[in-house]
Design a protein that fits this description.
By secondary structure, this protein is of the alpha+beta class. Among the domains are: about 100 residues, Acyl-CoA dehydrogenase/oxidase, N-terminal domain (Butyryl-Coa Dehydrogenase, subunit A, domain 1, Orthogonal Bundle), CATH 1.10.540.10; about 90 residues, Butyryl-CoA Dehydrogenase, subunit A, domain 2 (Beta Barrel), CATH 2.40.110.10. The protein starts with a helix and ends with a strand.
Length: about 280
């Protein structure tokens, strides 16, 4: 019996081993799940072995092993490297000036425009980079982490305004024109949604409204806080829709240019974000 039991166990073990070997070999073939996992592990190891540079020296903060680099395409990584270098040479120095002297970071936007970043998410057929939301998140994080928090905040709202413009540019000549010139003319956009009475509950604009007026619209808007207020070149404002009857799901957004905006930017003084210049505006 013991000998028979040993033979059975040996036979079972050999069968299991053979099956495991066959499974491993089959799943290690190109295109299989196991092969993809192995490639990702190898890629992750290569990313972790890369040295993050700051000018001519190794970066003094967290290295690439802490960054989700596997989410980025080769082109996005190249853009990230260029942006980190731009932060080191330009954005960081301007950040100190902006925060200490209460200066809006337009110089940093001019620098970002050299990389085409003002039209980061604009389709390529309009002259933009046509990048994804993942890339947009990386760019904002990179600006904030290595360059200038105020610029990152203003840039975030710029991307929000661009997103709103992209929703309606197809049949709007003016929006199309702006989207095509974002980098060439450094046209900074921003969103202005919040009313003083309801603040961050921007879906409930009590005092803002819009009325039909001739061939266009008459906008009444008083915003409690607007990032880049008074410094942006174009604004996307939210109000209740023309003909509003009390249903606060009936809201509209409008393009307004800087000459039609009154602002008080000096009223906002945020720690480390003074260059943001967020403040109330009125249209």
């Amino acid at each position: 019996m013991p000998a028979f039991g040993s033979c059975v166990r040996r036979s079972i073990w050999q069968s299991v081993s053979a099956a495991a070997k066959k499974f491993t070999e089959g799943n290690s073939a190109p295109g299989t799940f196991t092969a993809r996992v192995l490639r990702r592990r190898a890629f992750g190891a290569s990313v972790m072995s890369q040295v993050k540079m700051w000018g001519q020296e190794e970066f003094w903060g967290l290295g690439f092993e802490w960054d989700p680099q596997w989410l980025l395409t080769p082109a996005q990584k190249e853009l990230q490297a260029k942006l980190i270098a731009l932060c080191e040479t330009t954005l960081r120095a301007n950040a100190i000036e902006s925060d200490a002297q209460y200066i809006y970071p337009r110089k940093n936007f001019e620098a970002l425009a050299t990389l085409g970043l003002l039209s980061l998410t604009v389709p390529k057929d309009l002259g933009g980079l046509g990048e994804s939301h993942v890339c947009a998140a990386m760019v904002v994080e990179t600006i904030a982490r290595y360059g200038c928090p105020s610029t990152a905040m203003c840039y975030t709202m710029h991307l929000g305004a661009v997103a709103a413009a992209l929703l309606r540019y197809h049949d709007n000549v003016r929006l199309t024109d702006i989207l095509k010139r974002l980098d060439a003319d450094v046209l900074i956009g921003t969103l202005s949604y919040s009313d003083p009475e309801t603040g961050s509950h921007f879906w409930y604009p009590i005092s803002s409204k819009a009325e039909a007026f001739g061939d266009g619209w008459k906008i009444t808007k008083k915003a409690s806080w607007t990032t880049s207020g008074g410094f942006a070149d174009w604004y996307i404002l939210q109000t209740t829709s023309p003909g509003f009857s009390g249903d606060y799901s009936d809201l509209s957004c409008f393009l307004v240019l800087k000459d039609d905006v009154k602002s008080n930017p000096s009223e906002w003084d945020g720690l480390g974000l003074r260059g943001n210049q967020s403040g109330p505006i009125q249209v």
